[in-house]
Automatic annotation (TrEMBL):
Residues 146-365 form the Exonuclease VII large subunit C-terminal domain. Keywords: Cytoplasm, Exonuclease, Hydrolase, Nuclease. The gene is xseA. Its EC number is 3.1.11.6. The keyword Cytoplasm applies. GO terms for cellular component: cytoplasm; exodeoxyribonuclease VII complex. Belongs to the XseA family. This is Exodeoxyribonuclease 7 large subunit. It comes from Microbacterium terrae.
Amino acid sequence: MTSFQPEAVPGQPPPPDSVRPRDSTAEAPTSVARLNETIRGFIQTWGSVWVEGEITAWNLRGGNVFGRLKDAGADATLSFRLWSSTRERLPQDLKVGDHVIVCLKADFFAKSGDFSFTVSAMRHVGLGDQLERLERLRAQLRSEGLFDPARKKSLPFLPHTIGLITGENSDAEKDVHRNAELRWPQVLFHTRHAAVQGDRCVPETIAALKALDADPEVDVIIIARGGGDPQTLLGFSDERLLRAVAAASTPVVSAIGHENDRPLLDEVADLRASTPTDAAKRVVPDVAEQRALVAQLRSRLTTRLTHRVTNDISQLEQLRSRPALRTPEALVQTRAHEIALLVDRGRARADRAIDVHARRTDELRASLRALSPASTLARGYAIAHLGDGVIVRDARQAPTGTAVVVTVAQGTFAARSEGEVDERTAPGRDPAETGGGAAEAPGTAN
């Protein structure tokens, strides 16, 4: 049978009087204090031990933490205490769900018989290597322009249908539905469930993303999860998922809900929401706010129109009050006298001009009549024409037998020439004045 007698620890005082199983009997039992001291001395010989596990409880009391650590590969847990002085030296993002390595020291309180572990150090498992790989991927994607704000697509003002990728029956799904429907009751959802951690996370999320991106009814896609530790969020920093999101034609919203150590999906997505609830508020407008905005715009429009109409009416009244518009006939009456004077002046000037030109016309008519051949014919002269209309100016133009046409003051008649007549045989006749030789009408005697 194993003895409870602890061994002496170098550098420490020897353990108190301890008890061994053979030292106690029913007739001579040991005391509780002595048994507890024996257990305490035995436990103190363990020293510190490094343990790996998952934090399943993290209760803060007065600056100290009382928690539990679970073995990921077996159904085993232990309790631990973390004093505030030690907690100040640890990472501040430690929380439930983190996969950690802990340095524990066993403690047994002899007075109460309670057993527990005290934490002296704690850190995330493999976090340094993971962060280094993520930083290299971050730098690569940034150099390729996947983080560039210019390539990010803007969200529609009012999406008709929202594509949602989240865990089945998750709080994130409920939060998005509840808050979106509260803001805009008519909004529709096409939901695709996918694993949000583990090996299935990336392929299932990519498949859901491609299916929703190909759906013509989906206007925006939300990838939602209710937060988690960096280990469980690694899938949302996977290069395959990031490139699928960057290649999507539909705007994508990242709503992983983790403020510290944000996954790279937040950088590549077209919009980052801090939580699923925030995603619903960012994607869907509030119908009450929109109605209030419409009412405000209507009020401003009514005010401006009223002011504009009032101002125009005032200006119109001012214009109508001016003399020219108040009594418009006065302007006509004022100008009527001037117009009458101008008309009279124009009529007198026209009459004078007519008189002057009438006298001038009479003078020209008299001169024209004096020079007219008709006046000469009226005095008894005649004009003789040959058949071709040539005026006979020389008696030799009309030899004997020549037919001529004679024009007198009162008509024209035909004649035939009897030849040239001696001027001496025609007293009182001036052949030059008649413009032609003597003519005889047909059938007349010489």
